[in-house]
Design a protein that fits this description.
205 residues, two-stranded antiparallel ribbon, 6 strands, 2 domains, 11% strand, mainly alpha, globular, Glutaredoxin
């Protein structure tokens, strides 16, 4: 967040705004202190049911959609880091975003409608059931029924095993947290199986 804040201040464009959504079932109690510590001036919201991922069928974070002044999505990506960090990240996405803010429709990084549509995955019936199970799990967790919550969260995970969001959300409630041994093991498995942890950004296009 501090890096995005720096970029936001550097651009200083009244026609550009960042809306940052933290997807965490812990809500304001968990996310609020993180937002406060970041001391950002752009908009921050808490998305307890991962609604944004549901709309765009994002499987992982960080992710982003560029929306122009007419409300049209002109780019959508996963793995949208502001800098390289110890989990990988990248240093190509932020410059592409800056280029778009400065050049608008003339930016080489704007995607056409067909590409944007293709990058918003269609939800299968099992994935739709996974969404329902995940939200039921959140409901039970909120009301103190942890055993039932775990049951539905595991059901969501089995119905949509490609969703890293589901997996990491569950890890946030474990002792090791979302970036501990289980997470690192998952990353190793992805690498060994040749799977993309994020879809390629294709920023050369």
């Amino acid at each position: 967040m501090p890096v995005w804040q720096h970029i936001y201040e550097e651009l200083n464009d009244p026609n550009f705004v960042i809306i940052s959504a933290a997807q965490d079932t812990g809500g304001e109690a968990v996310v609020g202190p993180i937002f406060d510590a970041a001391n950002t001036t752009y908009i921050q919201i808490v998305d307890t049911n991962h609604t944004i991922s549901s709309v765009f069928n994002f499987l992982n974070v960080p992710c982003a959609a560029w929306v122009d002044e007419t409300g049209k999505i002109v780019r959508i990506d996963e793995g949208t880091y502001a800098k390289v960090h110890h989990f990988g990240g990248n240093d190509v996405y932020a410059p592409a975003l800056i280029d778009w803010v400065k050049n608008g429709t003339q930016s080489e990084f704007v995607q056409n409608a067909d590409t944007v549509t293709k990058n918003i995955r269609s939800l299968s019936f099992d994935e739709l059931k996974a969404e329902a199970a995940f939200r039921l799990g959140n409901f039970f967790r909120e009301h103190g029924y942890n055993e039932e919550a775990e049951q539905y969260w595991q059901q969501a995970r089995s119905l949509n095993p490609d969703s890293v969001n589901y997996y990491r959300q569950n890890l946030t409630l474990s002792e090791e947290g979302s970036a501990g041994e289980s997470f690192r093991k998952m990353m190793t498995t992805y690498a060994e199986e040749g799977k993309d942890y994020y879809r390629p950004l294709n920023l050369e296009e």
